[in-house]
Amino acid sequence: MKDDRAERNGTVSFDQLDEDHYCCVRVGRDLTHRAYEHLKAGRSPPLMGREQEIRDLLALLSRPGMRNIMILGPSGCGKTALAEGLAWKIASGTVPPALRRTRIISTSFGNIWSYTGDSDNWAAYLKNLGKVVEECTKLPAILFMDEIHLIFGHRYSIQYLLPRLSEGELTIVGATTNAEYLRSIEPYPAVARRFHLYHIKEPPPEAVVQMILKRIKHIWPWPGWHKPPLSPAVARFLVNLSDTYMPFAHHPAKAFQLLDQVVARKAMAEDQNPIDKQDIRMAVASALGIPIETITAPALQLRAMENVLNAHILGQQEAIGRLCRRLLIARAGTTVHGDRPQGVFLLAGPTGVGKTELAKALAAYLNGSDRDLVRLDMATYATEGSIYALLGTPMASSNEDPTVPVFTRMIKEHPYGVLLLDEVEKAHRSVMLLFLHAFDTGRMVDILGNIIDLRQMTILMTTNVGFSARQPVIPTPGLSAEEQSRQEEAATLKMIREHFPPEFLGRVDEILCFRPLTRQVMKGFIGQKIRRLEQATGKRIHLEEAAMSFLCEKAFHPDYGARDLNRAMDSLLGHPLALLKFENEEAWERIAALRVHLAPSGQALTVSVMKKKRGPKRRRRWQGGEPPT
After folding, report:
1. Between the ranges 32-41, 385-394, 515-524, where is the mean pLDDT highest?
2. Could you tell me the domains of the chain?
């Protein structure tokens, strides 16, 4: 029934569909009727910042032929919102005359299939699909199919819809991603050529800010919802923070998800105060599972990082200092490199000096756990064909459903962690050159077209080049220990430049040379292991100096660094502790402290219980009554 007042105001009346169109009602949504109801209620349109895209789609739908449109874009960029924006334009009457009475019916493969009531009844599915098409043709209506690749991915749907598309009986606007289109629709040229491809991108940050301000002011899908005030500066901070810590998602969806989480947290706390930056930081930390200190005080965290890493990795103060300075520059944004990873470092040194341990310690410090360390053993990529193990293999056929490549999955799970390329010199040259583009732009593309974002990653590469086959440098008479170390470092850098190509080294921010361990440094590592053993056993362990020297002598080897330390401590100290525990477990529970000393033979360690020292007997003070005896 027409609304004359609406006609005079420019809007077009779109009443709810009756039972004559029961299939569209049950398996679809009338977007134009919904927009018309919101217009009558005086609500604002849901779409903002997409005016040019709406005009383009209206122009395509107004053509006499080939009116079918395929909207392509990444997930979360607003493809479905464009259909809602079209419905709003039609309901408001600001469209060409040919579209003024056209409805937009939204449906999907899941809606139609669920209405069949039988998971294997393709005949019922095609029957329902046919009813939807017939009703849309009579209305008239434009059929909007979200995730259209699911419908055209089945030959039954193609065989039914293709004649309707060819004869122009039906107008379809579909939405899908580029990867799904290439996999499910493009292999069928008869279907692909009947759609006009329309690509959309993420809206610019300022447009997202305006969308957020409008969303927080007019949240029309949820009447009466908690609506705390939000300033433009805080909205801009939300957009920037989501770009930094959520590079795997796309605007405006990720900004809206973060905003909804902030609003929900304030609603649960019954907080009516305006949204501030701390609310957004806490929401990001909660959503991503990272320490709040990483977001709230990055400058203080980075300044303290050098001391923490030096306490964990002993004897490598210079390398750690250069690493921390470079990361401080990257996090502060005072670098001229632009969009690159946070840092690309080549850690060179002999085995067992702490290169891999530094990567673990850095990941634990930046993200609260070393589980955010993405580690690739480059020795497993020694052949040319191993590149497919990283970025996926080509699809054998168009109907194959490939799994997400392992490297893509690892980076998406930890987009702000530490990437360790262990023993990079053992990888094939083609695999090494694969990372050159990532070192420059911070991005890679896998075989499925997925973009791997490495801009928030810190990339560490380890190598033994210059140490594994190098003869010891003969000390030059008259040189100090520091000068001798510089001479060895220069020899190492020379061998590294001979082994790696210039285009590879030119993209490395720092080459950090690790120094061989000394006996004094080894004693420091033994002290660390003792403290870990104390935490594991719950006992205080006192290691005598003679026992410390004996452990250091057995664990230290100039060619293996600290590799033998764990094995030596397990055999020399762990075994006596295990014997003491299982001799009498009840007595073990009462032990508070243990002493480790060198056996009389000088070839083993013995463990004894430290008895609590008794102090002088204290006399009780007489407070009246019978005097103490």
Report:
1. 515-524
2. 4-199 (3.40.50.300), 205-288 (1.10.8.60), 298-513 (3.40.50.300), 519-609 (1.10.8.60)
